[in-house]
């Protein structure tokens, strides 16, 4: 009898177990790498949001200074916007925590633009218009970055919640992400001032 074609059942079972273990190990590594990659995408997309937030924070003092030149007696609104800006800029917590401060800042900016409506000369001021345009562009970029970040958070959360990748996530203590969402749809739009012809 030829030894090369005669394999014992124990040897065949050992090979089968080895193949299953190898496939399980490959799946484990692939799932772990996907979790790590998604977490890195979340970090990168948060960095994009951070850049736009810093740009917004830099624009707000200039905007307040332009309004102050025309509406100095509206100091309570101006001071509130500066305070909200400083609070939002100082928050380096989770996305959900920072969204609370950003929502308050968006409401404060809406109040500032409501004040501007009472000053036609200010609405026609070229410096103010340029600052307002820069803020609108920044808000648009911020909205796009927020959508990208939230898509990455959604993917991470799906991986952490769905079977069987949730086993790998729990095994390696991979945490779910928190969304960066403003409080309601009205606050999600960039503040704008109508320009009268």
From TrEMBL:
Pfam families attached to this UniProt entry: LemA
Parts of the chain that traverse the membrane: 12-33
Membrane topology field: Single-pass membrane protein
Localization terms from the record: Membrane
Tree of life domain: Bacteria
Keywords per UniProt: Membrane, Transmembrane, Transmembrane helix
Similarity comment: family membership: Belongs to the LemA family.
Name by which UniProt lists this protein: LemA protein
Organism: Lacipirellula parvula
Organism lineage: Bacteria, Pseudomonadati, Planctomycetota, Planctomycetia, Pirellulales
